[in-house]
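ARCHIVE CARD
CATEGORY: sequence design from structure
SOURCE FIELD: tokenized fold
FIELD CONTENT:
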């Protein structure tokens, strides 16, 4: 592929590789996606290896880079402001709260028309409630439980809610009746009193057979749950919210007076995009669509083709012998024996 003086070689012919090559040769420069660090956030360099690294974000990083973005880490505590070349700021599941000056930097960045993806997990992880509150989003102190039974079909318990309901947005276009899963999530809601200039979309919702468990001590220590009327909230519950606001006379990217739009997406879960869950149904598509929409590249928002997975089965010697005897010896002999019995009966 050639374009704009750039050449991109394709090593294998697939829809995904051809699309990525076209993107790389047709776009000027690369947009930078920054992932914060320093508070126990999900690590974009942790890869999935055997039974380790399921909570890393290496697959997410690779997928973002394939969309022709540059991915970097940033320690906000060592900066004076969010870099001017930041197209999307990602805060992925911090375990501890951000420092006051870091929150100020993020707020300033958003007020000037920046884009951010903020993902929080249930307590004891940081809620970042005071960071998203000025943008009309309230973070509930609960754990979303799903007793619909859908998760049991693939071995998931009630603490992994399944969503098939999505708000009307370019991010979730074509997602209706398609599953996404969220391991240990907290619910969100739009505040009753908020800036009238902010527009909201409840992006992801759980089913009616879910609720927000507020007795976290009972849940974590004793693994006992039960719906308490007046205390817990019944589903459908919101797990992700989009907030947008038009901003004027900002100076982001060094441009003064340009009309921009602040774009913010808040998820009540960060595990859905980890290595362990990225390829589950449409989890990866949802994450990548959120990044593309935040980067103002709606043409990259889509449901991507699923790559064939290498699902090799490793057998022990005993299992191999069983398969040999059953598949090669016993079953064929049983078929031959049944044929002989039928033949003899017909002859009589």
């Amino acid at each position: 592929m050639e374009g704009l003086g750039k050449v991109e070689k394709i090593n294998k012919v697939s829809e995904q590789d051809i699309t990525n090559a076209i993107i790389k040769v047709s776009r000027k420069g690369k947009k930078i996606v920054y992932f914060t660090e320093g508070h126990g956030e999900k690590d974009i360099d942790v890869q999935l290896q055997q039974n380790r690294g399921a909570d890393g974000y290496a697959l997410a990083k690779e997928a973002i880079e394939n969309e022709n973005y540059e991915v970097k880490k940033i320690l906000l505590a060592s900066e004076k402001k969010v870099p001017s070349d930041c197209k999307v700021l990602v805060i992925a599941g911090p375990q501890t709260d951000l420092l006051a000056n870091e929150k100020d930097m993020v707020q300033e960045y958003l007020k000037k028309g920046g884009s951010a993806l903020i993902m929080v997990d249930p307590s004891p992880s940081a809620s970042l409630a005071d960071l998203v509150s000025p943008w009309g989003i309230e973070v509930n102190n609960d754990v979303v439980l799903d007793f619909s039974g859908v998760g049991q079909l693939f071995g998931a318990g009630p603490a992994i809610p399944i969503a098939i309901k999505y708000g009307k947005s370019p991010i979730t276009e074509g997602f209706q009746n398609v599953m996404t899963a969220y391991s240990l999530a907290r619910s969100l809601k739009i505040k009753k009193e908020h800036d009238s200039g902010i527009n909201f979309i409840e992006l992801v919702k759980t089913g009616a057979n879910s609720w927000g468990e507020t007795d976290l001590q009972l849940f974590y220590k004793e693994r006992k749950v039960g719906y308490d009327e007046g205390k817990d909230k019944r589903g459908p519950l919101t797990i992700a919210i989009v907030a947008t606001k038009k901003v004027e006379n900002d100076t982001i990217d060094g441009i003064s007076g340009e009309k921009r739009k602040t774009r913010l997406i808040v998820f009540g879960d960060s595990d859905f995009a980890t290595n362990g869950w990225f390829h589950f149904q449409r989890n990866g598509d949802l994450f990548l669509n959120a990044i593309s929409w935040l980067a103002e590249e709606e043409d990259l928002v889509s449901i991507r083709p699923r790559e064939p997975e290498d699902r090799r089965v490793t057998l022990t010697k005993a299992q191999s012998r069983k398969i040999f005897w059953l598949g090669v010896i016993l079953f064929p002999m049983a078929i031959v024996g049944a044929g002989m019995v039928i033949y003899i009966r017909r002859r009589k």
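CARD ANNOTATION: The longest helix spans residues 317-347. Residues 42 and 159 are 20 Å apart (CA to CA).
SHELF: design records, drawer C
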